[in-house]
Amino acid sequence: MKNNKEIKKTGNIRIQSQHKIMIAASTEFVLQGFKGATVQSIADRAGLPKANILYYFKNKENIYHAVLEHTLQMWDEGIGDITPEDGPKAAIEKFIDAKVRMSFKHPESSKIYAMEIIQGAQHLKDFARTYQRKWVREKAQLFQQWIDNGEMRDVDPIHLIFLIWSSTQHYADFETQILTIMNRADYEDEDVEHVIAFLTDMILRGCGLN
Amino acid sequence: MKNNKEIKKTGNIRIQSQHKIMIAASTEFVLQGFKGATVQSIADRAGLPKANILYYFKNKENIYHAVLEHTLQMWDEGIGDITPEDGPKAAIEKFIDAKVRMSFKHPESSKIYAMEIIQGAQHLKDFARTYQRKWVREKAQLFQQWIDNGEMRDVDPIHLIFLIWSSTQHYADFETQILTIMNRADYEDEDVEHVIAFLTDMILRGCGLN
DNA sequence: ATAAAAGTTAACTATATGGTCAAGACCTAG
DNA sequence: CTAGGTCTTGACCATATAGTTAACTTTTAT
Hints:
The structure is a homodimer. By secondary structure, chain A is an all-alpha fold. Chain A is built from ten helices and no strands. At the A-B interface, helix 1, helix 6, helix 7, helix 8 and helix 9 of A face helix 1, helix 6, helix 7, helix 8 and helix 9 of B.
């Protein structure tokens, strides 16, 4: 009880502050990059004095790590799992649906992750990379089995995953460009559904599932 | 003659130095981002003293602008043109072929461009954005005509272009991740052909052209 | 041959920034 | 009420870095 309360009270302000800082930091990292985002700019955006930021995170790198980790975790949770029972059609539908929704809901996460990869994944821990390799290979194997069973066309499963990945992520990462091209200020709710429908249709057909 | 020689000689060293600097700068900008890339690091990579860099480019921003402009120009030249006579199949084939080859040949360009867009295209001149909108809309209209003529399935042409764009670009931008997943150190020549074949097959089929 | 132009570079400066510190405010438990 | 912890924050410092300058060398034009 006592311990509980301590966590509830003392922990709360810590969590809350850290959360507020991470939100602000995400924006700054997207806008300015890791080096370009200054602790001061993060502080300003979070509405806190700089020293307070450094009180909750030992240094800028730690903020970035926290943000990255949070991103990975969100990705991991958001991307529902695919099972052999799903069959190829449902699997692709689930996968596209989840990724597109995530792209539209958390574009900053996608952007930060993309920048990290583009720059060579210098801050990404080895285990994260290995984890992803395992994930992709596992899913690819599922697709391969469906192919072997004649449940879908014989397409390279690894590249199929890349295709889904890239085409869905694009709406987050290239938001600016896409909005410019569509001559719009913001995405709207219908866009999500439209994109899901479009991509699902195209890719299912590519796999001979339509 | 005199004038010619002057351009040939004097211009040469200028062009050569600028080129060398831009190559080095590209790498640094990809690796460290705009703010993270220091003039010194660019100088070191180019094998020149810092002051020499600043002699050829007034400041860091100018180096970045030159690199960006070069990238845009290359993209513009590399992406062959599509004409109404091509018909949808050849158009898609040409487009994918050109973009994939560019991704594998000049990944840094693709990366710099991607980072610029992700960060909100803060350095991109308005005319470049407008130009791209025009380009995409123009091509989309072509596809729309083919659709109206019953030459291909009725898919959203703008999103079709996004799909081709994203899936091809991905191999440049996410190089690091893709190599990790494929457990490889580098791309090989066959990869280009394989990717072209895979994407062309998938997307043509998606458009009902196969 | 020579003067002007172009190129090279070490040394310097001003500033921005990451991070520290210490003093004090504010909780919380007993 | 008070002692120990947590939180807050202005002031400070060391360093990294963009950009300048000025002296010097090399190239080019005539």
